Amino acid sequence: MKIQVIEEKCQGHNRCFVVAPDLFELDDYGYAHATNGGQVPPGEEEKARLAIENCPENAIIVIEE
Amino acid sequence: MVAEKTPPAPPPERAPVTDWKTDYEIFDAGYIKDPFPVWDEIRSSECPVAHSDRHLGSWMPTRYEDLFAIAQDIQHFSSRDVLVAPFGVEQGYEPEEGQEFAEVAAPPITADPPLHTWTRKLLLPPFSMKSVAKWEQLTRDHCNDLIDAFIEKGECDGAIEYAQQIPPYVIAAMLGVEKGMVPTFTEWVREVLEQGFANPEAAAQARIQMLTFLWGHIQDRRANPGDDLISYLAQAEVDGAPIPDQHILGTGFLIVVAGIDTTWSSIGSALWHLAQNPADRQHIIDHPEMVNTAIEELLRAYSPVTMARYVAEDVDYKGCPMKEGERVVMNFPAANRDPEKFPDADKVVIDRAKNPHIAFGAGIHRCAGSNLARMEMRVSVQEFLRRIPDFELADPENVTWAGGQVRGPRSMRVKFPAGGKA
Q1: Are B64 and B336 contacting, i.e. CB atoms less than 8 angstroms apart?
Q2: pTM of the predicted model, to two decimals?
Q3: Which of B50, B150, B155, B282 makes an SS bond possible with B60, Cβ 3.0 to 4.6 Å?
């Protein structure tokens, strides 16, 4: 599974980082970026989906199932 | 510090509301206490964007989809005026000509791009999750000091003696001003926002006192910089130039006004809910690892903040002819109870996993202090439950609420088995 944070949509709610701290990192302004080039390690898919579902800006997308 | 006061004005006489869909009154006492049935009525009607001629006219969306869309459309919906009603119109109040600090705005909350862009960028780093974590221990210690003051009595006012004491203490510490200012901050914020719509003269006075106070601190930090938030703003540069005092003043004003009664309202509402729901208390106690999930659900169900937007150009929004200069009441709390978006929207589901609520707004004006608010809420709930796991409302009928712009309990007697000081 591969995910991406759409930069123009992220407003720094930080919800993804709280539910999946291994899959996202925050910059100094609080904007989120996917770690590991967006590659979700096996077993972490559920957390990735939780992050997607909790983003109020719909800023996280799955680019590869 | 605080000059003589204008006594609070009695609430203005208003015609009773006959139809909430076409004549809503956001300052109605019954609505403030229990707004949920009104939102459901409007939301499920053929026109989920209500209109009212009161307070010079406004529109009020109630569906998640509409609130989200309007928050994103900054071309038509400006933030130049974010108050839910114009100040002083009902009282015929007009500010004196040339009033001190009249031109001070509160960027970035009152700004549109391009001013919004750099003023927000300036504010985000000190309110990031990492920066806010530095204030967690101070917050936790303060919560325990507050609890020590009433735990032996077996009762307290959860709003006045607890919730309301936490945010002004943290904000004062962050700004690097003396702790003794906490009661004054509280008073100013209540006068400016909570009571301002009913008493615009006192609000204007409080605003001037607050700005005068901040002005003095800005001058002081220019000369003697420290590691506080005012020093950070005073030392920051944009495009190689220092930030004008006037701007720091506006942003400082925003930090005080927006960082205090919003968060104490959410802490108060959380305690109000937990006092009446032992199973939810137990859930948080038994599952400390799920505290963030619980806090998000309390934020969704009892979102404190309603903002406004100013219609910048005529627009037809889903058949609503919105005219330039009209106000849109951004009812984020109603959006968060939309059953189309949230199953069992009217219930607190304390372990709700899917919860993309917009209690902090959406789009470019997402609350810059959301990380701070969440930290204060989590710590205050954790410490209260740790020390007082079993509590209930002593007098449920006499809980008083404030509302309009910021909704939350203002007095709330709570009783519990007496405990010992830490």
Answers
A1: yes
A2: 0.96
A3: B50
